[in-house]
Structure formats: structure tokens, C-alpha cells
Inverse folding.
């Protein structure tokens, strides 16, 4: 099991390193944002950030599945941590909300993404936005540091979600909260789809049942857990047919398995 987790992390790191070196338009034009991936086109998931204050096109690689910063109730002076910060998109939106008196920290395990985000922050002249390389299951942060934690379509890629939410709970200040967008399921994925490594990097195979997702939050001590937004994600037949034949596809559709994008709020008790 440990070896499988390491392999999945290496896969995600490899795919997102490729994506980091492409523009948003290239990601939208190519399958899953990295040439030869053969997996999911991320634009099936992503939503537009262009209407949000602080939006910077250079930081938007079109990789999210929601708008967690829009729902995160960030206040002036807050310390905000973004998990899987990529090129810095959510960090810069958060910085527009927290202002110069606040602080924003992005965590990402992909070196190419960290480098891209740091260059973007330098171009913008932000001295209160920083990016640290790190693993969400073992974050390079002290306890009780964050007022708000955000994450966009990343936690489904983490093999040990219980540990990830334990770490989020640890770094949040008492009374702090999270707002995370993620891919979850209603119903069971077919095994061949679940085991497809590239679908994992495309945020589908790593997704778990929505109730299990919420239960993991509760098991880690989070309270006032609220699904702020929920929408169905429809994956085109031509992509699904890479992992199943026509009869399996019909069976999958008949099962009414739902692949969903959700944005969830939860609080660490004061």
C-alpha cells in the first residue's frame, strides 16, 4: 500500500510538472493539459476566475474544479494557506481579500509549480505571498497558523485523506475554517476506471464518496460542515471509452454514478 501511495504521488508530480510548463490555452487545447496524457481534459472541471478581484491570468492554468476563495469568507488581515497552490491563482485571489496586512502561503509538492508561482508573485510585487514546497500529508507549517485554509481540486489527489485533513486541522487556528473545492462521487466507479493511473492525475480515480469525504472531516474534529456548492461533472464518452468498452459504458451510465464537484466549508472549534 505504501509503495502504491508513493507511485501515485510520483505520477501526480510528473503530470503537474508538465502542466506547469504550459499556458492555460495550451492546457485547454491538449488532453488533460499535458501532451500524451490520454486522460481527462481539466476544462471539464474548471470554472472561470476572471470576475474575481486579484485574478492574474499568468497564474491561472485552468486546473481547478470550483472557486473556493469566493466562498472562503476571507477577511482583511487573515493568514490564508492554499494547498496545492499551483501557479498561485487562488493565492492571489486570497491576497486581494486579506490585503497587505494579511499573509498568504501556498503549499505545493511540484517544484515547477513553486517556481512558476514565485515568479508570478515577484512580477506582481507581493511581499506577503510566499510559496513553500511540501506534502499536504506532512506540511512544512507550525500548528495554529492559519485563519483560513483553501484548496482547489487537490485533496482528491492525496492518497491518505485522513492524514491530510488531520494536517489541515493542525495548522488552523482555533476558530479558523476551511473552504475546499474537490471532486467526489455518488455511487461506485467501475474498477477499470478506478485503477486508471491517468484518471487519478485527472482527479477522478482519486475521488471518494461524498459522505466519506464529509465523515473524514468530522473524524478529524471539524464542526459546522456545510456543502456550499455542488455540481455534476459530465465526462465525455470518448474519454470514458479509453477505459471501458461500449457495453461497460452503458452499464456505467445506467448505474447513475455521479461524479461531482463540491465546495465544502468546515470549522475548527474555538
Amino acid at each position: 500500500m505504501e509503495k502504491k501511495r508513493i507511485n501515485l504521488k510520483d505520477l501526480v508530480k510528473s503530470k503537474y510538472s508538465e502542466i506547469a510548463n504550459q499556458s492555460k490555452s495550451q492546457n485547454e487545447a491538449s488532453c488533460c493539459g499535458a501532451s500524451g496524457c490520454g486522460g481527462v481534459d481539466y476544462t471539464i472541471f474548471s470554472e472561470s476566475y476572471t470576475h474575481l478581484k486579484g485574478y492574474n491570468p499568468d497564474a491561472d492554468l485552468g486546473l481547478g474544479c470550483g472557486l473556493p476563495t469566493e466562498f472562503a469568507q476571507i477577511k482583511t488581515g487573515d493568514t490564508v494557506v492554499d494547498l496545492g497552490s499551483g501557479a498561485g491563482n487562488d493565492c492571489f485571489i486570497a491576497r486581494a481579500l486579506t490585503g497587505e496586512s494579511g499573509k498568504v502561503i501556498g503549499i505545493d509538492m511540484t517544484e515547477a509549480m513553486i517556481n512558476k508561482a514565485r515568479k508570478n508573485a515577484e512580477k506582481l510585487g507581493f511581499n506577503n505571498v510566499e510559496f513553500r514546497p511540501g506534502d499536504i500529508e506532512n506540511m512544512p507549517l507550525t500548528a495554529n497558523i492559519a485563519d483560513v485554509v483553501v484548496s482547489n481540486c487537490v485533496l482528491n489527489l492525496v492518497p491518505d485523506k485522513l492524514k491530510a485533513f488531520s494536517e489541515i486541522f493542525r495548522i488552523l487556528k482555533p476558530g479558523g475554517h476551511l473552504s475546499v473545492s474537490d471532486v467526489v462521487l455518488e455511487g461506485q466507479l467501475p474498477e477499470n476506471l478506478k485503477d486508471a493511473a491517468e484518471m487519478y492525475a485527472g482527479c477522478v480515480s482519486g475521488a471518494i464518496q461524498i459522505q466519506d469525504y464529509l465523515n473524514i472531516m468530522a473524524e478529524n474534529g471539524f464542526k459546522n460542515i456545510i456543502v456550499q456548492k455542488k455540481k455534476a461533472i459530465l465526462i465525455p464518452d470518448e474519454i470514458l471509452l479509453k477505459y471501458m468498452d461500449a457495453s461497460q459504458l452503458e452499464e456505467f451510465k445506467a448505474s447513475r454514478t455521479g461524479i461531482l464537484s463540491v465546495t465544502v466549508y468546515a470549522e475548527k472549534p474555538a
Q: What stands out?
A: The radius of gyration is 18 Å. The domain at 2-267 is CATH 3.40.50.150 (Rossmann fold). DSSP finds eleven helices and seven strands in the chain.
